[in-house]
């Protein structure tokens, strides 16, 4: 009987720890969403249009990003007259990258698609994460902030470093499978600014890839700009 009681107490304590951790994660995520502008503001945003500059390998290139909230994401990078395009929707994705030998639109492989689709939602993957089928865990905390890990079927593995004062994301580390290999990328975010619509986003990013580092600076951001859904259609080669 004593063993049974001890087991029951241990189980109760364990469930209490799990429940507390879940509450802590939800509290952190909720404060993060509020820091971005809050659910009401984020849900009111239908689209975002961004003009940026991307610096890499000593060169600077103009970049344009189109997002229809939850429906389509497209980025166009013009590198010395060569256009590199990445596009995803809820149903699939495609890319054009002449620098990698792909001069026509190629479908994004399934092992990469889920990670690219994380960019579809304004407010980021943490917004309504459970409804999207994601799992969030608080895996650590240090002097600068919280570490929240987001996972889901299909290879999604993201770790967000959330500032404990501002509740904005300082850094995100993603792991994805590409060509049978697991690749880690790191994105650091800074220079957060609030748009006229009340949405706060980072105007500066540093993206560290396996062989190159990209420094991205937003020059122009337009919220709820008219965007033709047809721009997300995969070109017929």
Task: Considering the chains and any ligands shown, give keywords for the structure.
13 strands, 237 residues, 3 helices, alpha+beta, globular, disordered N terminus, 13-stranded antiparallel sheet, outer membrane lipoprotein receptor (LolB), chain A
What's a concise summary of this model?
By secondary structure, this protein is of the alpha+beta class. The chain has 3 helices and 13 strands, in the order ααββββββαβββββββ. The N terminus is likely disordered.
Biggest sheet, spatial arrangement of strands: 6-5-4-3-2-1-13-12-11-10-9-8-7
What is the number of strand segments? 13
How would you state the average pLDDT, rounded? 87
Distance between the termini: 73 Å
Derived structural class: alpha+beta
**Poorly predicted runs:** 1-23
- Beta percentage is over 45%
Shape: globular
SSE pattern, N- to C-terminal: HHEEEEEEHEEEEEEE
**CATH A-level architecture:** Clam
Radius of gyration: 20 Å
**Helicity, in percent?**
10-25%
CATH class: Mainly Beta
* Biggest β-sheet strands, sense, barrel: 13 strands, antiparallel
């Amino acid at each position: 009987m004593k063993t049974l009681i001890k087991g029951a107490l241990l189980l109760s304590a364990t469930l209490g720890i799990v429940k507390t951790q879940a509450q802590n994660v939800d509290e952190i995520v909720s404060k993060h969403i509020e820091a971005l502008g809050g659910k009401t503001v984020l849900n009111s945003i239908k689209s975002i249009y961004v003009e940026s500059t991307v610096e890499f390998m000593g060169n600077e290139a103009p970049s344009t990003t189109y997002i229809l909230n939850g429906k389509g994401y497209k980025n166009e990078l013009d590198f010395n007259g060569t256009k590199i395009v990445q596009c995803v929707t809820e149903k699939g994705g495609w890319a054009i990258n002449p620098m990698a030998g792909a001069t026509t639109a190629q479908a994004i492989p399934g092992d990469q698609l889920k990670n690219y689709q994380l960019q579809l939602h304004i407010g980021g993957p943490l917004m309504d994460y459970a409804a999207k089928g994601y799992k969030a865990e608080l895996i650590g905390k240090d002097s600068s902030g919280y570490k929240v890990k987001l996972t889901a079927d299909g290879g999604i593995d993201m770790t967000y470093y959330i500032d404990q004062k501002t509740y904005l994301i300082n850094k995100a580390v993603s792991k994805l499978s590409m060509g049978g290999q697991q690749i880690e990328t790191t994105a650091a975010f800074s220079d957060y600014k609030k748009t006229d619509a009340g949405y706060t986003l980072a105007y500066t990013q540093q993206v560290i890839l396996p062989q190159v580092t990209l420094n991205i600076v937003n020059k122009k951001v337009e919220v709820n700009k008219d965007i033709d859904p047809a721009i997300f259609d995969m070109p017929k080669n």
